Amino acid sequence: MNQQYWEKELETLSQVDLQILQYERLKKTLRFASQSMYYKKLFAEKKINPDGFKSIKDIEKIPFTTKEDLRSNFPYGFLAAEKREVIRLHSSSGTTGNPTVVYHSKHDIDSWANLVARSLFAVGTRDTDVFQNISGYGLFTGGLGFQYGAERLGALTIPAGAGNSKRQIKLMRDYGTTVIHTIPSYVMHLVDFFREMNLDPRTDTDLRHMVIGAEPHTEETRQRIQAMMGIKAYNSYGLSEMNGPGVAFECEYQNGMHLWEDAFYAEIIDPVTLQHVPEGEIGELVLTSLDRQAMPILRYRTRDLTRFLPGSCPCGRTHRRIDRMKGRSDDMFIIRGCNVFPMQIEKVLMQIPEVGNNYMIQLETIDGVDEMIIEVEVLDGNFLDNYSKLEKLSKIITNEVKNEVLVTPKVKLVQPNHFPPCEGKALRVKDNRKQY
Ligand code: ADP
Ligand code: ZN
Question: Where in the chain is the domain with CATH 3.30.300.30?
Fold first, then answer.
């Protein structure tokens, strides 16, 4: 097959050449970083001399940067450029606390747009496509990040924004949308609206493929989305601290996400010992921006858990691939001594055909005992009238969840659409347990 690339030379650099490029870019990045109050002080304290760096591996001399560091140096502690050079700021959605802010220069916005264009190209999006960006605009990076990237690619880009499903479907049909980008939890709601409007996304739209990202989801969820929409759904990973979308992206082979290593240096560490994990093992992803001027971030602990995938990709891109996120290290909850990731439960649920598209995990203390209650939508509302079928499904879910996480849940089956669509990322766990 004659493989096409957005930037062939960069995307197919050998690992050795990539490391040389990373080293060159790291030196520049350190020069910029040392202009910020935070890194200037840190380099002085730790006696770090960027001129003494001999290879990209020397990056390990630099301490990790955490979300807390960003927060406690809010708002300008990490700014590495003059105000007149800064043209935009974004901040994270604050899922896990106060937001953090990231500043961008003209160069930064330009290089980010290029990474998103490269990513979209890798999944087959072209300048002839109509790209509908179903994503919150404003401070959230999924809006403008994809807008600029898709425009850079040359696609006709519809800044549709989040929510308002009927309007989204109308836009798709009016303009013949061929590619959409959205968060995976929203697709589940969108499909219900198609049904309500007596339309089938597989036959009543011109969609060719879609991009899903910004929140953890399982392979089983992706399979469902693809079946319901009748198109391939490609995984997209990013975080505001590293621009936003365009950090790692699947190619058309859907076998893990190529992490754009010319723009980011990636390490995977054990979140407890902070040492590198052996190649191929799961750990916390640590990223360094290599092509950002206004606010470089060095060795940022993303709290996202993943691993490098072995082997090369048939697409010919040489940038290493990371696995689908297992979740965030701070997503994990402990109940009755067992460590549970919400994605383990989602995986089980999405494999059961009678289970609907949404769920919620509630942790409660009942009579002094901690309980995990899983509310699960059923696929077909009529199901709820049939007591024996219902009993059977509850049992299946209970047993399979127990096998996966070693905790017996209480399962509560609810109507389809029981959970209203949320504006942003889906909330999967509510912890109402008593704190002793
Ligand atoms: P917040 O941390 O407030 O949610 P962001 O909007 O920057 O702020 O979200 C970035 C986070 O979203 C990532 O660190 C990761 O946890 C999650 N995320 C983004 N893309 C994906 C993806 N494809 N799969 C799983 N998680 C993702
Ligand atoms: Zn590939």
Answer: 338-431
- 319 alpha carbon – ligand 2 mean position (Å): 8
Rounded-to-integer distance, Cα 46 and Cα 67, Å: 20
234 CB less than 6 Å from ligand 1?
no
Q: What is the pLDDT of residue 129?
A: 98
Mean pLDDT by 10 residues, the chain (436 residues): 89 97 98 98 96 94 96 94 98 70 98 98 98 95 97 98 95 98 94 95 98 95 97 97 98 98 98 96 98 98 97 97 92 90 94 94 92 95 85 96 95 92 84 78
pLDDT at 368: 85
**C-beta of 93 in contact with ligand 1 (< 6 A):** yes
Q: Euclidean distance between the first and final Cα of the chain, in Å?
A: 62
* 147 CB neighbour count, 10 Å cutoff: 20
Per-residue pLDDT, 427: 87
Distance between CA atoms of residues 364 and 405, nearest Å: 17
CATH topology of domain 338-431: GMP Synthetase; Chain A, domain 3 (3.30.300)
Distance from Cα 236 to the centre of ligand 1, integer Å: 10
Closest-approaching ligand to the CA atom of 256: 2
| Opening angle at CA 432, ends 427 and 436, nearest 5 | 140
Q: What is the pLDDT of residue 2?
A: 67
How confident is the model at residue 96, as a pLDDT?
Answer: 62
CB-ligand 1 contact for 358 (6 Å cutoff)? no
For residue 355, the model assigns a pLDDT of 95
**For residue 170, how far is its CA from the centre of ligand 2 (angstroms)?**
33
Dig out the tokens for 329 from the structure: 């290290």
Q: What is d(CA 258, CA 263) in angstroms, rounded to the nearest whole number? A: 12
For the domain made up of 8-330, give the CATH fold: Rossmann fold (3.40.50)
Which residue's CA is the closest to the ligand 1 atom numbered 19? Answer: 214
Q: Please, what sign has the CA dihedral across residues 207, 422, 138, 193? A: positive
Burial of 89 (0-12, 13-18, 19+ CB in 10 A): middle
Contact 136, 424 (CB under 8 A): yes
Query: Count of CB atoms within 10 A of residue 353's CB?
Result: 7
Q: For the chain, what is the total number of helices (H) and then of strands (E)?
A: 11, 20
For 207-249, the DSSP string reads: --EEEEESS---HHHHHHHHHHHTSEEEEEE--GGG-SS-SEE
Closest C-alpha to ligand 1, atom 4? 95
Cα Rg of the chain, angstroms = 22
